[in-house]
Specification:
Helix content: 10-25%
Radius of gyration: 16 Å
CATH architecture: Sandwich
Number of domains: 1
Largest sheet: 7 strands, antiparallel
Strand order of the largest sheet: 1-9-6-11-4-3-2
Structural class: alpha+beta
Order of helices and strands: HEHEEHEEEEEEEE
Amino acid sequence: MPLSFLDFDNLADAIAEQGYALLQDPQTLALADGLLSELNSYKEAHFQQAGIGRENLLQQNSQVRTDAIRWLDGHTSAQKQFLNGMATLRVELNRRLFMGLFDYECHFAHYRPGDFYKRHLDAFKGRTNRVLSTVLYLNPDWQPADGGELLMYEKKQEKPFLRLVPEFGKLVIFLSERFPHEVLPAQRDRYSIAGWFRVNGSIGGAIDPAR
Protein backbone atom coordinates (compact mmCIF):
# COMPACT_ATOMS: atom_id res chain seq x y z
CA MET A 1 0.00 0.00 0.00
CA PRO A 2 2.25 2.85 -1.24
CA LEU A 3 -0.13 5.75 -0.46
CA SER A 4 0.28 6.69 -4.11
CA PHE A 5 -3.20 8.17 -4.44
CA LEU A 6 -2.98 10.68 -1.62
CA ASP A 7 -3.18 14.35 -2.50
CA PHE A 8 0.46 15.07 -1.73
CA ASP A 9 0.16 18.67 -2.92
CA ASN A 10 -2.44 19.50 -0.27
CA LEU A 11 -0.55 17.47 2.31
CA ALA A 12 2.67 19.36 1.63
CA ASP A 13 0.79 22.68 1.69
CA ALA A 14 -0.65 21.87 5.12
CA ILE A 15 2.77 21.03 6.55
CA ALA A 16 4.32 24.14 5.00
CA GLU A 17 1.54 26.48 6.16
CA GLN A 18 0.60 25.15 9.60
CA GLY A 19 3.29 22.60 10.45
CA TYR A 20 1.01 19.56 10.62
CA ALA A 21 -1.52 17.53 8.63
CA LEU A 22 -4.25 15.00 9.44
CA LEU A 23 -5.27 12.06 7.24
CA GLN A 24 -7.99 9.46 7.54
CA ASP A 25 -8.90 7.86 4.22
CA PRO A 26 -9.27 4.37 2.68
CA GLN A 27 -5.51 3.94 2.25
CA THR A 28 -4.59 4.72 5.85
CA LEU A 29 -7.51 2.55 7.01
CA ALA A 30 -6.19 -0.34 4.90
CA LEU A 31 -2.74 0.06 6.42
CA ALA A 32 -4.24 0.13 9.90
CA ASP A 33 -6.27 -3.05 9.29
CA GLY A 34 -3.19 -5.15 8.56
CA LEU A 35 -1.21 -3.68 11.43
CA LEU A 36 -4.05 -4.25 13.89
CA SER A 37 -4.21 -7.92 12.87
CA GLU A 38 -0.51 -8.21 13.62
CA LEU A 39 -0.88 -6.42 16.96
CA ASN A 40 -3.58 -8.85 18.02
CA SER A 41 -1.05 -11.69 17.75
CA TYR A 42 1.33 -10.12 20.29
CA LYS A 43 1.39 -10.62 24.02
CA GLU A 44 2.53 -8.11 26.62
CA ALA A 45 5.93 -9.81 26.74
CA HIS A 46 6.54 -8.82 23.11
CA PHE A 47 6.76 -5.15 24.18
CA GLN A 48 9.47 -3.37 26.16
CA GLN A 49 9.10 -0.47 28.54
CA ALA A 50 9.68 2.80 26.69
CA GLY A 51 12.54 5.08 27.63
CA ILE A 52 13.61 8.67 27.15
CA GLY A 53 16.63 9.64 25.08
CA ARG A 54 18.76 7.39 22.96
CA GLU A 55 21.72 5.03 23.16
CA ASN A 56 23.88 5.74 26.27
CA LEU A 57 21.45 8.47 27.35
CA LEU A 58 18.41 6.17 27.25
CA GLN A 59 16.65 5.95 30.59
CA GLN A 60 13.25 4.97 31.91
CA ASN A 61 11.28 7.58 33.80
CA SER A 62 7.78 6.66 34.93
CA GLN A 63 7.13 10.28 35.84
CA VAL A 64 7.37 11.22 32.14
CA ARG A 65 6.13 8.19 30.19
CA THR A 66 4.72 4.77 31.01
CA ASP A 67 3.96 3.23 27.61
CA ALA A 68 5.52 0.09 26.14
CA ILE A 69 6.93 -0.21 22.61
CA ARG A 70 7.92 -2.68 19.90
CA TRP A 71 10.12 -1.49 17.01
CA LEU A 72 9.09 -2.22 13.42
CA ASP A 73 11.74 -3.84 11.24
CA GLY A 74 9.74 -4.79 8.15
CA HIS A 75 9.76 -8.54 8.76
CA THR A 76 5.98 -8.99 8.31
CA SER A 77 3.73 -8.22 5.36
CA ALA A 78 1.82 -5.55 7.32
CA GLN A 79 5.02 -3.84 8.39
CA LYS A 80 6.38 -3.89 4.84
CA GLN A 81 3.22 -2.24 3.53
CA PHE A 82 3.38 0.44 6.18
CA LEU A 83 7.08 1.13 5.66
CA ASN A 84 6.57 1.24 1.88
CA GLY A 85 3.87 3.83 2.45
CA MET A 86 6.17 5.91 4.59
CA ALA A 87 8.89 5.62 1.93
CA THR A 88 6.48 7.01 -0.65
CA LEU A 89 5.55 9.82 1.73
CA ARG A 90 9.23 10.66 2.25
CA VAL A 91 9.91 10.89 -1.49
CA GLU A 92 6.82 12.99 -2.23
CA LEU A 93 7.43 15.45 0.60
CA ASN A 94 11.08 15.83 -0.38
CA ARG A 95 9.99 16.66 -3.94
CA ARG A 96 7.63 19.36 -2.74
CA LEU A 97 9.25 20.74 0.40
CA PHE A 98 12.97 19.96 -0.07
CA MET A 99 13.11 18.69 3.52
CA GLY A 100 16.03 16.32 3.00
CA LEU A 101 14.20 13.45 4.71
CA PHE A 102 16.68 10.58 4.73
CA ASP A 103 15.52 7.79 7.01
CA TYR A 104 12.45 6.60 8.94
CA GLU A 105 12.18 4.75 12.25
CA CYS A 106 9.01 3.72 14.05
CA HIS A 107 7.56 1.54 16.76
CA PHE A 108 4.25 0.20 18.00
CA ALA A 109 3.19 1.99 21.17
CA HIS A 110 0.92 0.36 23.74
CA TYR A 111 -0.64 2.55 26.40
CA ARG A 112 -2.34 0.45 29.04
CA PRO A 113 -5.24 1.99 30.97
CA GLY A 114 -3.80 4.93 32.90
CA ASP A 115 -0.56 5.14 30.88
CA PHE A 116 0.59 8.55 29.68
CA TYR A 117 3.42 10.51 28.06
CA LYS A 118 3.99 13.98 29.47
CA ARG A 119 4.58 17.05 27.31
CA HIS A 120 7.74 16.67 25.24
CA LEU A 121 9.41 17.31 21.89
CA ASP A 122 10.33 14.44 19.57
CA ALA A 123 13.64 16.02 18.53
CA PHE A 124 16.50 15.12 20.85
CA LYS A 125 18.17 18.02 22.62
CA GLY A 126 21.22 19.20 20.75
CA ARG A 127 20.35 17.20 17.63
CA THR A 128 18.37 18.13 14.54
CA ASN A 129 18.02 14.75 12.90
CA ARG A 130 14.34 14.08 13.74
CA VAL A 131 12.40 16.59 11.70
CA LEU A 132 8.98 15.11 10.91
CA SER A 133 6.87 12.95 13.22
CA THR A 134 4.02 10.60 12.32
CA VAL A 135 1.44 8.80 14.44
CA LEU A 136 -1.00 6.20 13.03
CA TYR A 137 -3.76 5.15 15.43
CA LEU A 138 -4.90 1.53 15.71
CA ASN A 139 -7.95 1.75 18.00
CA PRO A 140 -11.25 0.44 16.58
CA ASP A 141 -14.47 1.89 17.96
CA TRP A 142 -12.65 4.48 20.05
CA GLN A 143 -14.98 6.92 21.79
CA PRO A 144 -14.15 10.38 23.17
CA ALA A 145 -14.97 9.11 26.67
CA ASP A 146 -12.13 6.57 26.32
CA GLY A 147 -9.60 9.41 26.72
CA GLY A 148 -6.03 8.97 25.47
CA GLU A 149 -6.07 12.15 23.39
CA LEU A 150 -2.97 13.61 21.79
CA LEU A 151 -2.53 17.25 22.83
CA MET A 152 -0.39 19.47 20.64
CA TYR A 153 0.99 22.86 21.69
CA GLU A 154 2.79 25.76 20.20
CA LYS A 155 6.01 26.44 22.08
CA LYS A 156 5.58 28.72 25.11
CA GLN A 157 1.82 28.16 25.02
CA GLU A 158 0.12 26.55 28.02
CA LYS A 159 -3.09 25.55 26.24
CA PRO A 160 -3.13 23.01 23.38
CA PHE A 161 -4.27 24.16 19.96
CA LEU A 162 -5.20 20.59 18.95
CA ARG A 163 -6.85 17.79 20.93
CA LEU A 164 -6.83 14.65 18.81
CA VAL A 165 -8.93 11.56 19.61
CA PRO A 166 -6.89 8.43 18.64
CA GLU A 167 -9.45 7.02 16.22
CA PHE A 168 -8.69 3.99 14.08
CA GLY A 169 -6.83 4.78 10.84
CA LYS A 170 -6.16 8.42 11.67
CA LEU A 171 -2.66 9.59 10.72
CA VAL A 172 -1.15 12.81 12.05
CA ILE A 173 2.08 14.25 10.62
CA PHE A 174 3.85 17.20 12.26
CA LEU A 175 7.16 19.02 12.55
CA SER A 176 9.16 17.32 15.31
CA GLU A 177 11.01 20.39 16.56
CA ARG A 178 8.07 22.77 16.50
CA PHE A 179 5.27 21.17 18.51
CA PRO A 180 5.50 19.97 22.10
CA HIS A 181 2.82 17.33 22.66
CA GLU A 182 1.56 14.83 25.19
CA VAL A 183 -0.61 11.72 25.46
CA LEU A 184 -3.34 11.75 28.09
CA PRO A 185 -4.26 8.62 30.11
CA ALA A 186 -6.89 6.40 28.53
CA GLN A 187 -9.61 4.19 30.01
CA ARG A 188 -8.71 1.22 27.78
CA ASP A 189 -5.73 -0.18 25.90
CA ARG A 190 -4.54 2.33 23.31
CA TYR A 191 -2.34 1.40 20.33
CA SER A 192 -0.51 3.42 17.70
CA ILE A 193 2.59 3.49 15.53
CA ALA A 194 4.85 6.45 16.31
CA GLY A 195 7.51 7.25 13.74
CA TRP A 196 10.06 9.88 12.75
CA PHE A 197 11.57 10.97 9.47
CA ARG A 198 15.17 12.02 9.97
CA VAL A 199 17.81 13.96 8.11
CA ASN A 200 21.41 12.82 8.01
CA GLY A 201 23.23 15.22 10.29
CA SER A 202 26.22 13.01 10.96
CA ILE A 203 29.81 13.63 10.04
CA GLY A 204 31.38 11.64 7.23
CA GLY A 205 28.13 10.64 5.54
CA ALA A 206 27.11 8.02 8.12
CA ILE A 207 23.59 8.34 9.46
CA ASP A 208 23.21 9.35 13.08
CA PRO A 209 22.66 6.09 15.01
CA ALA A 210 19.07 4.89 15.23
CA ARG A 211 16.88 4.99 18.37
